Amino acid sequence: MAPQRSSFPSHCRRSDPASEEGVSWGLRLLEVKEMAVVLHFYVRVCVNSLFRRREVVADFLSKREICG
Fold this sequence. Notes:
By secondary structure, the chain is an all-alpha fold. The protein has helices at residues 7-12, 17-67. Residues 1-22 are annotated as: Disordered.
C-alpha cells in the first residue's frame, strides 16, 4: 500500500483561518521587534560615536589652549 499523500498536507496545514491570521500577526510582530532591535543598535552606535567625537574635539581644543 502506498502512503496517502492527501493526509500529509492537511496534517501540516491548519484549516482554521483565524489561527493562520494569528500566526501571520505573530510573525509580523517578530519582524518589527527584530527591526527595532537593529535600529536601536545603530542609533546607539551613532550617538556613542558622536559623543566620542565631541570629547575628542573638546580634548584637542583644551590642549591647544594650554599649549598656545
